Amino acid sequence: MSERLEDIAIAMVAKGKGILAADESSGTIKKRFDSINLTSTEDARRDYREMLFRADDAMKNYISGVILYDETLRQSARDGTRLADLIKAAGSIPGIKVDAGAKNLAGFNGETITEGLDGLRERLNEYYELGARFAKWRGVVAISDTLPTWGAVRQNAQALARYAALCQEAGIVPIVEPEILMDGVPGDHSIERCYEVTDLVLKTVFNELYDARVKLEGMILKPNMVIDGKNARKASVEQVAELTVRVLKANVPSSVPGIAFLSGGQSDVEATAHLSAMNAGYDMPWNLTFSYGRALQAAAIKAWGGKDENVPAAQAAFTHRARMNGLAATGAWTEAQEKNA
Ligand code: 5MM
């Protein structure tokens, strides 16, 4: 594996591959395990992640990198192999979520700021030693009749830029994730309103990245798609693809090697169909792929149910979603492939 930031970034968005977001914090993974009536112990979290990382077909062919949570980067498989080494053995790159989560922004009713900059330089150096070659930081923006405010957008963009500069100093590629929520409160905004907010947020983020002297060739953008609110969904696949590509072309310099979307609460198949429509229908200067959490894992976690005997079925479910999204990353996914699999 090459150590230049540019080479790592290019490998993260290699054609036909994408990123597995397995960086659920303890609270989020507990919610996922609650859905299968499983207690979230350290061993259960290890077993679940080990099951995913040992799904050889998926990992070798469709997963370029895996975003881990601090605990997982330090964990070993049942046989003592470090989980990060399982990922590397499959030819994939270990990454690490370094933000400390979105907290209430003082003075801004209902908006958040992502924390975690204090001590980040030292943590990044340690994560590098533990094998991480890329990192992730998520800033969260909610839409309502009155939100977002300019102050909250700018402060989140500044935090993303400071994080990205620190990553590059440590030899780690930053994934810059400004997420405009699809399922916020009330979650009934139109696709046009999502476009408007995404446009403002991306403009602000790239201005701040520029001011922070972040090297665009050595980063990956992880945006939301332009989509209507979860409680008002009516946009077609073509409309989502068209408006998403339009907002990206208006804001993302071509020196950024790749864009890897979050799924944000879309169904598995919607997230795949939208990505495929963009890659099939438009010429773009960057590789466009996935960095999905829920849309890659939902079927696998359900099939697993916390039971060893279900590991093959869960790995098959994960491999299927990874393959469908690998096809979408080249624009080659079809509904027929989804059904025939
Ligand atoms: C996997 O979920 C990630 C962690 O969330 P928490 O810090 O809240 O536990 C999340 O950041 C994820 O990487 C992205 O939002 C993309 O995941 P989705 O599920 O939206 O594709």
Automatic annotation (TrEMBL):
It catalyses: beta-D-fructose 1,6-bisphosphate = D-glyceraldehyde 3-phosphate + dihydroxyacetone phosphate. Pfam families: Glycolytic. GO terms for molecular function: fructose-bisphosphate aldolase activity. Keywords: Glycolysis, Lyase. InterPro entries: Aldolase_I_AS, Aldolase_TIM, FBA_I. GO terms for biological process: glycolytic process. Coiled coil: none annotated. The keyword Metal-binding does not apply. Pathway: Carbohydrate degradation; glycolysis; D-glyceraldehyde 3-phosphate and glycerone phosphate from D-glucose: step 4/4. Its EC number is 4.1.2.13. Belongs to the class I fructose-bisphosphate aldolase family. NCBIfam families: FrucBisAld_I. This is Fructose-bisphosphate aldolase.
